[in-house]
Amino acid sequence: MTNFYLDSNPKLPNHKCELHYVCPETCPNLPAIIERIQLGNLPDLKTAIHIARRKFYNQAHLIKECSHCSNAPSH
Ligand SMILES: [Zn+2]
User: Fold this and answer.
1) Paired residues of 13 in beta bridges
2) 8 Å CB contact between 4 and 48
3) 75 is a domain residue
4) Exposure on the CB side of residue 55, measured as CA atoms within 13 A
5) Is residue 27's pLDDT more than 80?
6) Could you tell me the residue range of the domain that residue 56 belongs to?
7) Total domain count, the chain
8) How far, in Å, from the CA of 7 to the mean position of ligand 1?
């Protein structure tokens, strides 16, 4: 199990046109604690994205998996 985060808050008006990326706590692209939203301790990235899209259903189409974490073979 890993802690997953959303890298920005979709409810903030200044982020309305941006994409929001889901990352595990090990991601080097994660922003500071105050700028990210904890999604919980989850089994994988796919589950984390599902949780994030359900939580912010109005912006679900803007929520993506972190390209670094989904493409990198390993750290
Ligand atoms: Zn990442």
Assistant:
1) none
2) yes
3) no
4) 18
5) yes
6) 2-70
7) 1
8) 9
